[in-house]
Amino acid sequence: MNPSIQPYGPSFSEKPLEQLNRIAKKPPIDIEFSDLMYSIADSNVKGGWRQLLKSVNGIFKSGELTAIMGPSGAGKSTLLNILAGYVTAGVKGSIKINGKPRDMKLFTKLSSYIMQEDLVQPRLSVRESMMVAANLKLSSTIGNKEKVDVVDEVIRLLGLEKCYDTKTEYLSGGQRRRLTVALELVNNPPIIFLDEPTTGLDNVSIKQCIELLKKISRLDRTVICTIHQPPASLFQNFDQVYVMANGYCVFNGSPSKLVPFMSSANCICPATSTPADYIIELVQSNPENIQVLQNHSQNGKQNLRQKLELRQNQTELFEIGEIYQDTTQTGISFQDVDYPTSFWTQFIILLSRMGKQTRRNKTMLYIQFFHHLMSGLLIGGIFFGTGNEASQIYSVFKYCISINVFFMYTHVMSPVLLFPLEVKLLRREYFNRWFSLKPYFLAVTIINIPILLMGGIFFAIISFFLSGQPLEFERLFWFSLVGLNVGLASQGLGYTIGATFDILNGSVVAPHILALVLALGVYGMGYKDGIESFMKVIISFSYMRFGLVGTAGSLFNNRSNIPCEGTYCHYRNSEVLMADMGMGGTKPSYQFAYIMIFTVIFRVLAYLALKYRMTSELRNKLVYYATKIVKQKET
Ligand SMILES: Nc1ncnc2c1ncn2[C@@H]1O[C@H](COP(=O)(O)OP(=O)(O)OP(=O)(O)O)[C@@H](O)[C@H]1O
């Protein structure tokens, strides 16, 4: 063992993950692929399809660290995504697990995919992040003490003891990378995929990272990572290297076999170059070299191993389905269980994590507080004392518009700007089957309600009193309730946009939609009943219209004549104004109910948008088949 990894705690040979293995002993798994092809639609290419993988072959074995190497754009991430099951549509060829065709549903329960971006949940310590992972990824039948032991063990294995209580945002690049690995190790997956685990790390961290992966692979794990160009000193650390170029495999075998392989293909590695650098130089300098080498390696079929070890006892290689029937501790067949924990356990864990993160985001809480306070003072000040004066009755109407605009913009924009980041984080956890989307989305919905309610009521009360509205509880009640519901509907709309678009596109789309909602909301004011029927239908798509009618109704309905300072005020009877505005004869409670329909619809749409974004298989399939249909029509 390399002495440099000693600070990472006891070596695996001394203490081979006892806790983890006790909880989830999982047998070795080999992954084999043959004639693997993958194409994407590309109008710049003849035939309209660009082949990213060109009939590649290979077998990646358990107990080994495999590196998929190659120049930029070679197809490394594409191959990894396909093997991990992140991309499935449009893939041709065979992928076998322990000699049997891959069953995706079971395979995703056995594998972990660590993506290139080290996205970890903010405002949680390493310990807390690990405990959330353990609580979600380990069965509820396992006690808390055992979960803590597992977490401690994995933390020690990855050398993160020193930063146990450090918040994730303060971790160094290397520590964060190790934490992303640690989070996925908690449930002891037999196959681990890592996309570019060394990118952005300094040389020492790269060394530690590769040694760590090797150490994990020795625990009968199949560890497969992509790497652009490994440092020469670490090249020999891999058990198997799979070199790719332009969608082909140009070498498959042990690192020590690379030089003889190139020599046998008449490509003599100069003494001044390292083999890994040289093969990449070769394939980059001349496309003909790619053909020569891929023919020579039979596109990956030829596996040049130092010692091609076949397991002595082939019965070790279980069929995936059998594995979990043998190892489940509960007696429940693994195939029948989608997630290790129940819906409500997932919901409670996620809600508590979100609650902690919200409470710790003090800056955001202060901003929210001051935003509501200042907006209440500003809007209340602008319409100061106009509420009980008939000559100012139009100002009260404008006040209602301002209130609705406030609730709309405040609650749409936050999710539009924040949720896309959350979606990126969510993708890692969801793809690795920590939880299902329903409890997650329910937790997201619930967690924001207290702040929305408290802030909204605070704002409504300040502006209500300052603008001199009638001091009647029922009016304040309906006024606030309708406003809050506009806020809730807007939040749902914000989540729909945030789940569908990235921040840039979302921040363009959201104001456009809000402008439309606003324009329709105030359309036809003063037309009395003169609004055309078709426009009545169209404006009913604006929930702000219902918000405006509801808030105005709560202030103007059933009101005795409003005092008039001057000699004549046309609208001393506020219900006449409501009728002239084309908004009369309705109750705020009805408007509340209409807005509620939007609130529910937007939440459902947000959930579906999220599901679409998360379910890569569904997304890939839809895009793939849509493109195929378009291409078929074109030809
Ligand atoms: N969805 C996609 N649409 C269009 N082109 C794609 C898509 N996915 C991959 N490609 C292209 O396929 C090729 C292989 O991409 P891939 O990400 O697998 O390369 P890579 O070897 O991992 O490169 P790098 O080391 O730079 O990450 C690239 O030319 C890339 O532009």
Automatic annotation (TrEMBL):
Residue spans crossing the bilayer: 364-384, 396-420, 440-464, 476-497, 503-525, 537-556, 591-610
Domain ABC transporter: 31-271
Gene Ontology cellular component annotations, sorted alphabetically: plasma membrane
Protein name as catalogued: ABC transporter domain-containing protein
Record carries keyword GTP-binding: no
Primary localization: membrane
UniProt cross-references to PROSITE patterns, sorted A to Z: ABC_TRANSPORTER_1, ABC_TRANSPORTER_2
